[in-house]
Amino acid sequence: MTLVYPSNPPAVVPPSKAPRPRLAFVGTGYLGATYAICFAELGYEVVGFDVDEPKVAKLAAGQVPFHEPGLDELLRKNLAAERLRFTTSYEDVADFGDIHFICVGTPQRADGMAADLSYIERAVTNLTPHLRRKALIVGKSTVPVGTAEWVQQLVAKHADPALGVEVAWSPEFLQEGYAVEDVLRPNRVVFGIKSDWATAMLYSAHKGVFELATTEDREVPVVVTDFATAELTKVAANAFLATKISFINAMAEVCEASGGDVTMLARAIGYDARIGNRFLRAGIGFGGGCLPKDIRAFQARAQELGVGEALRFLYEVDLINQRRRQRVVRLAAKLLDRPCGPAGPDLSGLRITALGATFKPNSDDVRDSPALSVVRKLARTGADVVVFDPEGTENARQAVPNVLYASTLGDAVTGADLVCLLTEWEEFRNADPRALAELVRSPRMIDGRNCLDPALWTSAGWTYFGMGR
Ligand code: UDX
């Protein structure tokens, strides 16, 4: 059933008897912290829980442990308004919450492609024995289809059966760098439910989102559905986005072989509204904490369900994505006039500057970052690699300690034989090619994100190479 927020949503009195349901977010990583802060901003009473004491202390002191535009300010504002607090006590959370959103991580398992559900299991089995009244447990983490049913079984086993604790699933779709907007102004919300009570509770928990939309004359579509469809919505959306990116990167490979320009091609096909022009930026491919692991976990789950063949294309999507990273190294060898054998080129004695380490701009996240993967590959060629990233240096240094890190763009490019733009930060897109040409040893640029104007850079004396053009 799809509907826009009804003018008369089903009424419900929260188990705590508070005027609005009290919301708990279990797991204050990227997802949980953002949700907790934004729902406090929407006027709810909120508690954020984590087992990580230093993280909870940081949040309680008004510091967001990661970089997300706009979030710091909202955190401090809502702590001051006493709508928001953080705890490491399951008892406290159980006592407080009417709705417990499970926001813990579901990383890729070390032994294969499937998702590791141990954090979900721990959160549910540790929380539910402390519940003393009815509550709704809502999964938000990205999970393999079937997880909500399993969570329901865990709840049945660990919560007092007399309380009638229920389960629902409501996936999130937030993009790093736009997370505050995506939570306050979602393009849709999805409720996977089994009862009218759960639906009413979820409407009530999202009333703030709908009211904000009404004041701004927007609509928020609500999809009310079963558990499996709700769980699949998230992985299907991410699989589609990953496929779109790998599709255009496959076209980049064909352009490279045939003399075409993939940026013009993307523009030309994107005018067809059925195709659309978003997520068609060819470059060094996708990364981050979601798309790569989600397409792998989706394949693993499809195998278990006996429909592995249906998602075999996602294996190709992953391979295309990995090939883009290697392509930068081969281009580097070509531009630097060094042979590239099967073991890769020897670029020792050369200085290569990598602009960007994070998986995308406006984030300090380096999880499965294509930029950092290229940095690792370049370091393996024997070149002296210098990295500069406006926000991600600290995280990058931990992940790849064996390269140099510069603290300004100017320092980073000074003396470079080659510059590789790997994350399209605004600072790089707006850089002055003439000024930078003065600093490098040799003005060669690989634009791994196709975000620079080739004519401008060429006229400033640079040998410019884009991806797929
Ligand atoms: C993604 C989904 O967009 C979001 O809905 C979901 O909730 C979580 O996963 P995020 O990981 O924040 O969000 O990043 P996104 O903006 O989707 O970008 C993913 C990667 O794809 C980045 O590395 C980005 O650089 C790359 N990308 C994106 C491209 O290479 N080309 C494009 O055209 C778009």
Description:
The protein is α/β, with parallel strands linked by helices. It has 3 domains: 2-225, NAD(P)-binding Rossmann-like Domain (Rossmann fold, 3-Layer(aba) Sandwich); 235-321, N-(1-d-carboxylethyl)-l-norvaline Dehydrogenase, domain 2 (Orthogonal Bundle); 324-466, 3-Layer(aba) Sandwich (Rossmann fold). It has 19 helices and 17 strands. The protein has helices spanning 30-41, 53-60, 71-80, 90-96, 118-127, 147-158, 179-184, 196-205, 207-215, 227-258, 262-270, 291-304, 312-335, 370-380, 393-399, 409-413, 426-429, 433-439, 454-459; strands at residues 2-4, 23-26, 46-49, 84-87, 99-102, 136-139, 166-169, 189-192, 221-225, 340-341, 344-345, 351-355, 384-388, 404-405, 418-421, 444-447, 463-466. Strands 4-3-2-5-6-7 form a 6-stranded parallel β-sheet, sandwiched between helices. It is elongated and about 75 Å long. The relative contact order is 0.09. The mean pLDDT is 96. Residues 173-176, 238, 241, 245, 279-281, 283, 285-288, 290-291, 359-360, 370 line the site of uridine-5'-diphosphate-xylopyranose.
